[in-house]
Design goal:
By secondary structure, the protein is α+β, with helices and mostly antiparallel strands. The protein is built from 13 helices and 13 strands. Strand 7 and strand 8 form a beta hairpin. Helix 7 runs antiparallel to helix 9.
């Protein structure tokens, strides 16, 4: 972990990251001279789209407690106290969708997501309340345990690791995962600078640097009049296209290249692809065509690619953290485990599902009722018996059909 941080120009100092040149992570501006914060990063449409796609997809998946029996068959453990908390409502104010969405956003931006664990009688977990990731500091106590401290709604918290659910992002450090805002600061700073330049260009009617030549020196009164009238009549998007009236030998010329010549549009397009690489999202899934030939053309294939290389790591981190920190040793020994139900992402289109189910039923490794359950259909009598086709049997077992051969 230390070597990885060093390669990124980062070093851990106490409970936070610090750049190796001594500057604070929070005060650090990127190479383009623009500071990167949670709000400024989310103001970039590509960052918003990537973060919203990942966190929104994760929060839409049912999070359930399962129990695996001795034969390896797992069933939803709806009688477990955690089932309703994780599947329906983690706390009084949020649904499971809201809570998971918040955790997903902080994981993407800050590399860490925290929730305070509230316990009732007998140590039973009764609620999970999210904590703001930017406010949480983590340090190791002398006894080796972790301590979490933050202020929320005017109240200060200082809790041990047994009372905080901590989902870490990339990095593998017990004190916390790597922050995307810290690792991608230079790139995000450059993207923000390009956005500001584009906004300024459009504000000034795509012609920010113009020269107006006069044959004679202007008096202070004439100069002031020209500047005021030019700003009033010719600057701004609303005045775009207004004809310029030149008289008295006045000449007007542009001192800068057009946006097309300066490749501003190409720069902004490339910025989207840079952001997508940081978050691991195929550009097509956030509405950016880009080099479309480099990606699968089928929506189903893109979804499988997104699930395999982007979501799976995040889902596994969340599941592992919850299984370790929310379930007791006795629960795990009894076969309980927490898992996302990803069936909805793998359903594909009607034709693909039909072919899949047909093959499964014909081979006998799925039953009719298992198929109907996945399709949200009512179970039918006799549908729990596996069936196999009998066309490939020895000719001696065809019964009365032998007489007709």
């Amino acid at each position: 972990m230390t070597r990885a941080l060093s390669a990124l120009g980062l070093a851990r100092k106490g409970d936070s990251f610090q750049f190796t040149d001594g500057r604070s992570r929070e005060a650090q501006t990127g190479a383009a001279g623009v500071a990167v914060t949670d709000a400024s990063a989310m103001g970039l449409d590509a960052v918003w789209a990537c973060v919203n796609l990942i966190s929104g997809t994760i929060s839409s998946l049912p999070l359930q407690v399962f129990r695996r029996d001795a034969d390896g068959h797992k069933t939803p453990a709806k009688d477990h106290p955690l089932y309703e908390i994780l599947h329906d409502s983690p706390n009084f104010e949020q649904t499971a969708v809201d809570w998971l969405d918040a955790l997903g956003i902080w994981m993407e931006l800050r590399g860490n997501a925290y929730s305070r664990i509230e316990r009732g009688a007998g140590g039973r977990i009764v609620a999970l309340i999210p904590a703001p990731a930017p406010s949480v500091t983590v340090k190791r106590r002398p006894d080796g345990s972790l301590e979490y401290a933050w202020t929320q709604d005017g109240q200060k918290y200082r809790l041990g690791d047994a009372d905080v659910l901590h989902v870490r992002g990339a990095g593998g450090d017990p004190l916390g995962g790597l922050s995307t805002l810290a690792v991608a600061r230079n790139s995000l700073s450059a993207v923000q600078a390009a956005e500001l330049a584009a906004a300024s260009t459009f504000k000034n009617s795509l012609n920010p640097h113009t020269s107006i030549k006069f044959k004679e020196w202007l008096t202070p009164e004439q100069r002031k009049l020209v500047e005021e009238r030019m700003t009033e009549r010719y600057i701004g998007a609303a005045n775009s296209g207004r004809p310029f009236i030149a008289e008295g030998g006045v000449e007007i010329s542009a001192l800068s290249l057009s946006p097309e010549d300066a490749q501003m549009l190409e720069t902004r397009q490339f910025s989207v692809e840079v952001i997508c690489r940081f978050f691991g999202v195929p550009p097509a899934l956030i509405g950016h065509a880009g080099a479309s030939t480099a990606w699968p053309t089928s929506v189903e294939q893109q979804m499988i690619m997104f699930l395999t290389f982007t979501l799976r790591r995040r889902l596994r981190r969340i599941e592992a953290a919850m299984n370790k920190q929310l379930l007791s040793a006795a629960d795990r020994a009894a076969g309980y485990h927490i898992e996302f139900n990803i069936e909805g992402l793998l359903r594909g289109d009607s034709a693909a599902r039909s072919a899949f189910y047909s093959a499964a039923l014909a081979a006998g490794w799925m039953t009719i009722n298992e198929v109907r359950t996945k399709e949200n259909l009512r179970r039918v009598e006799g549908g729990d018996t596996p069936r196999m086709q009998m066309q490939n049997v020895p000719i001696t077992q065809t019964g009365d059909g032998d007489a007709d051969l």
